[in-house]
Fold each of these.
Amino acid sequence: MKQIYLDYAATTPVDPEVAKAMIECLTMEGNFGNPASNTHFFGWLAKEAVTEARLQVADLLGADSREIVFTSGATESNNLAIKGVADAYSHKGKHIITCVTEHKAVLDPCKYLETIGHEVTYLQPNTEGLISVAQVQDAMREDTILVSVMFVNNEIGVIQPIAEIGALCRGRKILFHVDAAQAVGKLDVDVKSMNIDLLSLSSHKLYGPKGMGALYVRRRPKIKLTPLIHGGGHEQGMRSGTLATHQIVGLGRACSVANACLSEEYQKLLSFRRYFIDSVKVIPELKINGDPKHVFPGILNVTIEGVDGEALMMALNEVAISAGSACNSATIEASYVLQAIGLTAEQAHSSFRVSFGRFTAQADVGKLIALLIKQVAKLRKMSPLWRKGKGDVI
Ligand SMILES: *Cc1c(COP(=O)(O)O)cnc(C)c1O
């Protein structure tokens, strides 16, 4: 049985055009050279491809191509930005501001920094998942060196007030890092007008290959970063290692494809979101989590009271969606993001995330809706807890 893929926030398939460009950079007949080889044609050709890709990435962000550092993904980009700034600016201060609903790839570097003498303030969002500019301002201190706030939340899709926080940080001369893994290629992201100093992106969230990403690092004013990886001095010394031409070309092409169809794709996702929300209104006590206005339309996080998430996952096995709980090897932990916005552990367990993308068809959304309506009714009929709550005599 082939499932319908509705988990684009977890990863996206590589766009066929991207795959084609990548394949051309692998074999003897292709562009396989080392971009750092400057004594022969193979190297020059590879370097040319990398240069073009760097421009494509920069274009999507409104950046200069010299501000793009290629990495292995958003996890590495976040680590480089946060630990790199913490180390390079520790003479100025050791205080960082972030948010409890950030991705683990931001929270864990922050936790690590706390073990070596840095201080981190974790802002609490409101029940809609939003943090306010005032909260960021109130948390700022003399020794604050960095604010790190994600663009789009990967679990609930909420969009933080990035431009407003950026303006505040610029005014206070505090560096501003944004984990934009879920935003780049999907929303308008402009590092200049938003006053972003460092921005992480992930190739596999925008129809490029896995194991590839980039960090935008502002040049004016110049930002110092202590590298995580020392070696041949590639990427202006910020990230050593032979450049992976095929991966870089893949990311570059993914960015140019995204740039070309961004607004059209956004409108499609918005119509799917409206279709879904309108259709599931017939299900009692169904709630869409997160702010309804400041949200990326492709991500929907849904709580269905009185229905166990795991049972629901099994009942919906014709669609590939994500549970509201993160399965760690032994225990099933309720999502910390959902709990941070006020859901109980039980409610978090009764939640799931569905995410639409480039290859989602209206019929796929229709299938999900039909399944959901049918299976929720069935599960609730079997649930003594739910029936009791509704006044049934059991
Ligand atoms: C996926 C994701 C990451 C991690 O990106 P990788 O490229 O898989 O390392 C970081 N932050 C957010 C918000 C994400 O969605």
Amino acid sequence: MRPSEPRNASRRNVLKGAGIAAAGVSLLPAGMALAQGTAPAAAPKGPKLLEMEGKAKLAVLGDKPLVAETPAEMMDDAVTPTDKLFVRNNGQVPDITGDPKAWKIKIDGEVNTPLELSVGELMSRFPNVTYQLMLECGGNGRSFFTPEARGNQWTNGGAGCPQWTGIRLADVLKAAGLKSSAIYTGHYGSDPTLAGETNKPTISRGMPIAKAMDEHTLIAFKLNGKDLPLIHGAPVRLLVPGWAGSLSTKWLNRIWIRDKEHDGPGMGGFSYRTPKTPIVPGSKGNDKDMAILESMPVRSVITFPADGTKLASRKIDLRGHAWAGDYDIKKVDISTDYGVTWKPAKVDAPPNRFAWQRFTASIDLPTAGYYEVWAKATDSKGVTQPFAAGNWNPQGYGGNPLNRIRVLVES
Ligand SMILES: Nc1nc2c(c(=O)[nH]1)N[C@H]1C(S)=C(S)[C@@H](COP(=O)(O)O)O[C@H]1N2
Ligand SMILES: [Mo]
């Protein structure tokens, strides 16, 4: 099996921004030959860039529905700025007007006291908390699968770690009183489907009660200290850090407490599920052999320098972020010789659980010329990133090969 090349790398070359130019470096030519032993990247075509008020020029992966990822070099901020946070819609953006504080959400099903609370009541009745929390699309890394898996071809940019303010879902569930029959949640938002239907959910996922009761699982109304923008789920959304982003329902209007695993759209078939027994890549698979994807896998992204950078010096002050679903990062190792030797990067502690961790490394390349820099993170359970996306599945979940960038040292 060949290692996964930096996918869409030539595509990303188009994105080099002012930061790179300011550092006195320019770009490798688009379509530059890759090092011996690696396969050429996908056809070099520039990405469509997002043009939306309040959003940076993210790479558009689809426009109906709108899906846009954050290029690796735009993931460099310690706290993801709102304009750089990726966007993933499954349907249309709802038309929401009126006082956001009057917006209501319903908690019903296996509870002693079904609740219908306005956002204003939620804010005043329960403690408001702020954490820096990962939001990561379940399909992040999908483009690294061979053969291509069905869905948006995310590289590593379906992820971000901004600051979220909200109330704990646990507090609301305690107020409603969970019955002993409560085992799972089912989430509903107000977005019309792509076809424009408003009488059925676009997507409706859920989680085991234990995850719902985690103190970091929020009903969020602020993003980086400001009211949630409409595109990110205003007036309120769920934020279920560490698990597939699809659980973090935007435009939230109902949480249904179930006495069995939830069965809304996005819970069955090959959606957000990975094979219990590895299947032949490219095969149809059997949806009876699939298990729900819960915690997201360990991942690292080099955010500086950008892939394809020409460097004036052999010294690189490398930076990146690593994260691992429910777990912390134990170490990140860096290789500049295709994985023959590895050196540990410095890894910072997270500001709180479920936040990404900064890694830095001072690299001294032995000569001028072409190098790849590889990063490989290991989580607190000792699970590390593979060399190639493994456990292939039809819809491409769990693709987390080590991260690779290419640099050319000119002197
Ligand atoms: N109501 C609703 N909530 C939703 C979605 C959606 O299509 N509708 N997409 C989900 C998916 S798949 C992801 S990855 C995250 C993305 O959140 P963002 O667009 O704020 O980055 O929202 C989730 N919440
Ligand atoms: Mo997603």
